[in-house]
Amino acid sequence: MGLETKPLSTLHEKSSYDVADFPVPTGREEEWRFTPLSRLKGLHNGTAAVTGGVVVDVEAAPEVRVETVGRDDARLGKAYTPADRVSAQAYSSFEKATVVTVPKMTAASRPTVITLRGSGAGAAAYGHILVSVEPMAEAVLVLDHRGSAVYADNVEFDVAEGGTLKVVSLQDWDDDAVHVSHHHARLGKDATFRSFVVTLGGDLVRLSPSVSYTAPGGDADLTGLYFVDEGQHLEHRLLVDHSVPNCRSNVTYKGALQGDGAHAVWIGDVIIRAEAEGTDTYELNRNLILTDGARADSVPNLEILTGEVAGAGHASASGRLDDEHIFYLQARGIPFDEARRLVIHGFFAQLLEKIEVPEIRERVLSAVEAELAR
Amino acid sequence: MSTLEIRDLHVAVGDKEILRGVDLTVRSGETHAIMGPNGSGKSTLAYAVAGHPKYTVTSGTVLLDGEDLLEMSVDERARAGLFLAMQYPVEVPGVSVSNFLRSAITAVRGEAPKLREFAKELKGGMDALSIDPAFAQRNTNEGFSGGEKKRHEILQLELLKPKIAVLDETDSGLDVDALRVVSEGINRFRASGDTGVLLITHYTRILRYVKPDFVHVFAGGRVVEEGGPELADKLEAEGYEAYTSKASA
Q1: Is the pLDDT of residue A11 over 90?
Q2: In-domain check, residue A353
Q3: Which residues of B touch A330 (CB under 8 A)?
Q4: Which terminus of chain A faces fewer neighbouring Cβ atoms within 10 Å, N or C?
Q5: What ipTM, to 2 d.p.?
Q6: Taking every annotated instance into account, which residue ranges of this chain make up the domain ABC transporter (chain B) (predicted)?
Q7: For the segment A269-290, what is each residue's pLDDT rounded down to a tens digit?
Q8: Do A349 and B156 touch (CB under 8 A)?
């Protein structure tokens, strides 16, 4: 791909609020080829019956304003325009949206927790969340997905000049849940965004976190941890679009897989456009395959359209537990299962330290423990 | 009183036979040095006894106090009282020294040490080996220098207190100061008199600090000569040449 050619990533450039602008995916499209469409329960082709329920419950920090608004609220859809059919379907189908506002110059004193609880995977539900961080404001947000659902939603993180937003999104669904979600962060001048995604539960989860910058100085860290069990399809599709100078991004996703039909997909797209001089970016994905029959697809795409970058790199590796690590621990008397547990913990350890909400860190730790005990 | 008894041990890696009938007995209170040229099978002996999956025992027996080690898993052997200090200790990302040692001590002693006692024991052990206490929070062996790795192996030796320790080229890559510190650790371990040491080395240098009771010369996958400490002096003077030609004959 030379500089004259259109960016590969043009597939992300098609955006519309209208479902009809996106053909029904067949599974041959680049953006859908890894996703088992037959397990989407009609979210992609309009056949999903919209009678399902996901209850949204917000436990907000006292400084933060929370509203439930209708479709006509002018603030919605400003930071993000849907980029694929399911996203457009969600945008045109949700009834109520949750808007969280962190007022200007305010630092929220504790995390705001949004719990999304599904009441069954028999029918579909759509949702929309907007988190608006006003200039120089600072907040921690937790999105906690539980229960069972067929759910598609869009989450907009709009971080204004000098603002800081730290998000933990926990996909802790029941085994039969289907969740297709877009998380988009739009960062203003000198804004800071930290996203920590933890995906553990669900039959199929396809989460697409993306970042765009409106002014220089934006700084995004996107971290993810997933544990894929037998039969699960957990897909993370990242896109960082550097379109202004002197912004930074770092993507680190790590996953472990075990059991027949466990399938992880990680797509990491980073575009550094011609205007985005001084960009500093790095993306990494690692997969630890614990058993036969599990599969990880990892596709980093770094597209650089300017010669003036501060740093740009990517790495991807998928492999088995290292026998030498296990041997060393066993040679000190540590039984195999415990040695395996220590090594897998070690694999995730640096990521876990980044979770700034202690209760969530503990919960993720014990969830990983529970996965290992299976 | 413990005994490690190796009888007619044959070991292969893939199709290639490396050990060709090793006989060796190590008792508590004894220090045996195994010396030999590179490629003579010294390290294979160490790893095979510890149970590394790469090495296949094709015949022979290894008994620790009459128990068949070869029937045991790697961790069972360690809990039975065998310790292998490795020539190339493994880096284990994300597992801190402190967490690793506490897990190992818990496994070997059969119960978790109390946190405060463990911290004290760890600090004492690290002090004795001139290891910076900050290492407790570092990932096991990750980014350690060669000398730091070897000190860390001896720290484990002193904390786990095995019946029989196999030290595989613990002296290689150490400068004189580190060699002295590590040797003192080995000597503290030996001092009780109820532990046995099998010291594998290419060079006689460490034997000035850790005096062996018996010296075995290894060549071509077996012991070709045995003697007392004076044999080491002879090797220092004459090298291995006599044995390598003998072994290939």
Answers
A1: no
A2: no
A3: 51, 73-75, 78
A4: C
A5: 0.96
A6: 4-245
A7: 999 999 999 999 999 999 999 9
A8: no
- Residue in chain A lying closest to B155 (CA): A332
Nearest CA in chain A to B49: A331
A109-136: pLDDT as tens digits = 999 999 999 998 888 999 999 999 999 9
CATH number for the domain running over B3-90+163-248: 3.40.50.300
Is A247 domain-assigned?
yes
Give A202 to chain B, closest Cα distance, Å.
Answer: 28
Which B residues in the span 137-166 are in contact with A, Cβ-Cβ below 8 Å?
Answer: 139-140, 156, 160
Task: Give the count of domains, chain A.
Answer: 1
B12 reaches A (C-beta below 8 A): no
Q: Do B108 and A331 touch (CB under 8 A)?
A: no
Q: Can you give the residue range of the structural domain that contains A57? A: 8-323
- Where are the domains positioned within chain B? 3-90+163-248
Is A175 part of any domain?
yes
pLDDT tens digit sequence for A53-99: 899 999 999 999 999 999 999 999 999 999 999 999 999 999 999 99
Q: Inter-chain contact B53–A327, Cβ cutoff 8 Å? A: yes
Secondary structure (H, E, C), chain A: CCCCCCCHHHHHCCCCCCHHHCCCCCCCCCCCCCCCHHHCCCCCCCCCCCCCCEEEEEECCCCCEEEEEECCCCCCCCCCCCCCHHHHHHHHHCCEEEEEEECCCCECCCCEEEEEEEEEEEEEEEEEEEEEECCCCEEEEEEEEEEEEEEEEEEEEEECCCCEEEEEEEECCCCCCEEEEEEEEEECCCCEEEEEEEECCCCEEEEEEEEEECCCCCEEEEEEEEEECCCCEEEEEEEEEECCCCCEEEEEEEEEECCCCCEEEEEEEEEECCCCCCEEEEEEEEEEECCCCCEEEEEEEEEECCCCEEEEEEEEEEEECCHHHHHHHHCCCCCHHHHHHHHHHHHHHHHHCCCCCHHHHHHHHHHHHHHHHC
Contact B139 A345 (CB under 8 A): no
